[in-house]
Structure formats: structure tokens, C-alpha cells
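Figure 2 data, in text form.
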Amino acid sequence: MAKVLGGGSSINAMVWSRGHKNDWDFFAHEAGDPSWSYESVLGIYRRIEDWQGTPDPLRRGKGGLVYLEPARYPNPIAPAMLEAARSLGVPTFDGHNGEMMEGEGGAAIANVRIRDGRRLSVFRTYAYPYMGRHNLTVLTGALVTRIVFDGKRAVGVEFRRDAQSHRIAAHCEIVLSLGAINTPKVLMQSGIGDESELARAGIDVVQRLPGVGRNFQDHILTGCVWEYKTPIPLRNNAAEATFFWKSDPSRDTPDLQPLQVEVPFSTPETAHFSPPTASWSMLPGVVRPRSRGHLRITGPNPSDPIEIVANTFSDPTDMKALIRAIALCREIGNSAVMSPFVKREVMPGNLAGRARKLRARCGDSLFASELHRKDGPR
């Protein structure tokens, strides 16, 4: 959703993270198209990468446009996290791409999109070097509002810039790439989507396509925080170690990908923990959620907001996976290996102590339901 050239690659954590082999092969199976398979996509990865780490000609590329390197001289807590993960039975790798994305998972120092201390965005890599070409025009401050149709054939787009409406005709094709939220919004407001949803918003149907806006899913992320025993200055992207693991050994593919970061994690919902500035975090993440939501347009105008019905945790499997991820992160963060970097666990902290306080406040009869309602299941 970043309103900047390069999109998310201009504001994210600069970690280059591939999809797992099983995920790509699943896409190929669902699409009935072998070009989505891991073997096919692996060839694309090799072609576009300029990998600076340990050579691996089978899985890593050299000489491509996408410069990648292992995080340089990582914060000491990063290799310590790998050692702690290994003590729990999680294997470690030179990098979290390549071989690690073909098996049961593992832990590694992250691959980063950084060169000489500067972020590398998709725009800087692929578009900026060609800004002088006559067949490339980049407009900033422009909002695409609608696809223009001739019958059912897309022939152009409308957009607003400097409070004026403009139209561009397409001679060949239109590629609509506005992200997981705005792509379905523009499609629906252009008349492509579920007939009943379009009618409710007062939009004429150009093409009935009920899947538009459906099957919404998102990666679920929370935070565990520890106060540093002795603060350590930030390095690289401040998020140099990660592990990829299964919430349940019976799963065919890893579904958890926590990330270690060198700063405190805090949101309005967790502000009461008051994590000190000199803190570091592990972010438990569920990367194969089973919960599905949908997007709904609220009106026909570009300024009408889109309603996101996320349905987070509508599938209880996701809550179980997140609880497992939190437990793993706490095991790692509170391990003997990490003790040189830990003054105390800030969040979630002493769960048994919190439970005792809640029991004293609510009484035994209300304890279970109150604990579930306020803090989630334990």
C-alpha cells in the first residue's frame, strides 16, 4: 500500500524471501500450468539474481539485476538466535533461500536487498535506469480510477492527477498491478465482479466475475519483546535472522516464519507493556493462513472506501499455529544461548503471574472466560 515508487519494496524490511518449493508446485497444480512450478520459477530466480553469498549454481543466480547479499556483520543476537533454534532441533543454513526453501524448513541469516548501505527497491532496479526511454512514462501523484471498456474489451484507463481527470488509451494491453486491495477495488468499480455486490454499490456490470474481491488472506504477525541487557547499535536492516518451521510436524510445508528484529515491537494494542527503547523482538508469523476474508466496495466513486472483511482467525487452525509460533519464539528468546542479551522478557512476560492476577480480580467462576476474552486462549 506504499504510495511511493517501488511500492512495498521502498518501505519494507529489505529481506529477500522466496516461496517454498511446495507452494510453487501447488500453484502449478491449481492453475494447471507447469510454468508456475518450482523448477520453472527457480530458473527465473537464477536469471534475475546477483547473489553475493556462498555460491550455489543449482539454486542461486549471479549477474542478474537483483543484487542480494547476506546481512553483513550481523548483530550478535542474530547468530545467537540461530544457535538457539538449532538447540531446539531447527537446522541452520547459510541463507534462508535456496536449499532451505526445498525441505522441512530451517533458520538462517537473512538475504537482504542492500548495497553499500543503501536500500535497493524494485523501481531503482528495474525502471530508474531506463527513465530516459521514449516508451516509458512514470507519473507520480496519479490515482487510477477506472478501466475503460469498448463492450467487454478493455481499451484504456482513467486516472486523476492534480484534481483533473485523464484518460490513456491502450494500443496493446493493460497490466493492472495495484496490490491486493486496490486491484480488486478498481476492477469492481469498473464493473468487473460479483453481480450482486456491484448492484448494491450502484455499478453496472460489464463482466460477471464473482471471484473478484474474494479469497482475501493475510500473514498474521505479532511480537515478543525482550529488554537488552546491554544495548547494541542497529545493523543492516535491523532484522537479520529468521526461521521457517512447521506449527505441526504433520504439515507438508512450513507455515511459520518468525523474524528477529533489533527494536521493540509495539502497537496500540500492546502499548500497555511499555517496552523500553533498548529492546529487541521476535515476530511470530503465520505465512500459510487458512482463514479467508473478502473485500467489499461501498460505492461507485474512487473516493468511496473499500471495506476489508479480513476474517482473521475464522479458521481455528491459524490461532493454533500462531500460539505455536509464539511458544517457539519464547523458547528461543528465553534460552541459555540468548541470556547474554536479555535483561528481562517484556512481552508477553510472565503468563502464569498474569493469570494469577486475573483469577484474583475476576474470581474462579469468571476466570476462564475472562482470560479468553481479554488475552486470547492460553
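Caption note: Residues 174 and 273 are 48 Å apart (CA to CA).
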